[in-house]
């Protein structure tokens, strides 16, 4: 925490500063944590509630997964999408990477005085379209308005409830697991930055915002020869990008990770923009991609299935988990050298929420 003891922008950016805020301020002061529930301490994409343990029915083992997120992206409209699709997709994806089928969403909106009704209606329609895509209803909500001097754009909070028959956590990575990335990195962050700052990148690059449940659900049932789940861990690389997500998975799992630069799916326009702007593409946010860690024997099968879906056509195996360099992520560069991929620090550029 900073010496002057105030909240700064970097505390919400997804890097080390945000993790410090969560650990030293939020978790430190929340002691009323229900026994038997998995949530705050694990810092997964959602919290789980075991139905059997909470309704005293030993015949059932389903897990309810709950997640919530607030979206304050600026501007609310960006190439090929807007904050409404982002809000629904982000919440659906947080459920999906924990192996949970989305059951229902709630939505709370804070709208500033003067916000155009046509724009507001477009946002609502986008939310509805994203929800319909994965068959999840929006069942409750709340709308507040505030003085135009108190808020410069719309804020949307979405909470999702899902059910998982087998919960997949981001701490389940094991040595030997292969790491699949479901598509190109950096599309959302760079397209948003170019739109917001008025950069002419001579490209039709658009945001990758998408609800991923229909793609992810197709690989969850896959099993190893021994009948065990093929997928050991999943995570969506949003704030902090691929670098932040992989470091978190390595640290939680107690494994090392090695990725190959030559195997990273990245558009030439994103790579060029990052080089021009001095941004590491591994730290750029994504809103329609997932990291899927899978047993080596099932890696090609999972990859083949993912590639059949429109959101996974650029999927690739980018690396593997190791029993060395515990908690660290290394990248084998195109020239054959190795370098550490560090957890992002400070206020990441560009901010995506």
Keywords:
7-stranded mixed β-sheet; single chain; 9 helices; alpha+beta; 353 residues; HypE; PurM-like_C_sf; 14 strands; 60s Ribosomal Protein L30, Chain: A
Characterise this structure.
The longest helix has 17 residues, at 117-133. Helix 3 (83-96) runs parallel beside helix 4 (117-133). This protein has three domains: 1-32, no CATH class; 37-164, 60s Ribosomal Protein L30, Chain: A, CATH 3.30.1330; 178-340, PurM-like C-terminal domain (Phosphoribosyl-aminoimidazole Synthetase, Chain A, domain 2, Alpha-Beta Complex), CATH 3.90.650.10. The chain has helices spanning 16-29, 51-55, 83-96, 117-133, 187-197, 213-216, 241-253, 268-277, 299-307; strands at 47-50, 63-71, 77-78, 81-82, 101-112, 138-146, 155-164, 178-181, 231-235, 256-260, 291-294, 316-322, 329-332, 338-340. The radius of gyration is 20 Å and the shape is globular. By secondary structure, it is an alpha+beta fold. Helices cover 27% and strands 23% of the residues. It has nine helices and 14 strands. The strands form three sheets. The protein has a seven-stranded mixed beta sheet. Strands 1-2-7-5-6 form a five-stranded mixed beta sheet.
State the helical fraction. Answer: 25-40%
Q: CATH H-level name of the largest domain... which superfamily?
A: PurM-like C-terminal domain
Average per-residue pLDDT, rounded, comes to: 86
Determine the structural class based on helices, strands and strand pairing. Answer: alpha+beta
Secondary-structure element pattern, one letter each: HEHEEEHEHEEEHHEHEHEHEEE
Low-pLDDT runs: 53-60
Briefly, what CATH class of the largest domain? Alpha Beta
Distance between the termini: 21 Å
Number of strands: 14
CATH architecture of the largest domain: Alpha-Beta Complex
Family: Belongs to the HypE family.
Pfam families: AIRS (PF00586), AIRS_C (PF02769)
InterPro entries: HypE, PurM-like_C_dom, PurM-like_C_sf, PurM-like_N, PurM-like_N_sf
Protein name: Hydrogenase expression/formation protein HypE
């Amino acid at each position: 925490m900073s010496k002057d003891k105030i909240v700064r922008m970097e505390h919400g950016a997804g890097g080390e500063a945000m993790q410090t805020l969560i650990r030293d301020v939020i978790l430190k002061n929340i002691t009323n944590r229900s026994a038997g529930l998995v949530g705050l301490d694990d810092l997964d994409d959602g919290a789980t509630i075991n139905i059997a343990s909470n309704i005293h029915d030993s015949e059932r083992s389903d897990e309810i997964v709950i997640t919530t997120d607030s979206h304050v992206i600026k501007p609310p409209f960006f190439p090929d999408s807007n904050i409404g699709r982002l809000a629904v997709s982000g919440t659906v994806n947080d459920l999906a990477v924990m192996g949970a089928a989305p059951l229902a969403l709630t939505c709370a909106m804070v709208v500033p005085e003067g916000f155009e009704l046509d724009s507001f209606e477009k946002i609502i329609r986008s939310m509805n379209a994203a929800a319909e895509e994965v068959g999840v209803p929006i069942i409750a909500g709340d709308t507040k308005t505030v003085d135009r001097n108190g808020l410069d754009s719309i804020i949307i909070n979405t909470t999702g409830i899902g059910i998982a028959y087998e919960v997949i956590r981001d701490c389940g990575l094991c040595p030997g697991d292969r790491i699949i990335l479901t598509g190109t990195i950096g599309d959302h962050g760079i397209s948003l930055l170019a739109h917001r700052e008025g950069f002419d990148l001579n490209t039709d690059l658009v945001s990758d915002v998408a609800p991923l449940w229909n793609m992810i659900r197709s690989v969850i049932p896959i099993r190893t020869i021994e009948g065990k789940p093929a997928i050991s861990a999943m995570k969506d690389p949003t704030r902090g990008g691929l670098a932040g997500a992989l470091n978190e998975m390595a640290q939680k799992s107690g494994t090392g990770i090695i990725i190959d630069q030559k195997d990273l799916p990245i558009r030439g326009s994103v790579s060029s923009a990052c080089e021009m702007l001095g941004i590491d593409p591994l730290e750029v946010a994504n809103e329609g991609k997932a990291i899927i860690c899978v047993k080596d024997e099932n890696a090609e099968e999972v990859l083949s299935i993912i590639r059949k879906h429109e959101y996974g056509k650029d999927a690739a195996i980018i690396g593997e988990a190791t029993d060395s360099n515990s908690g660290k992520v290394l990248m084998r560069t195109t020239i054959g050298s190795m370098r550490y991929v560090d957890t992002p620090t400070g206020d990441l550029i560009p901010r995506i929420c």
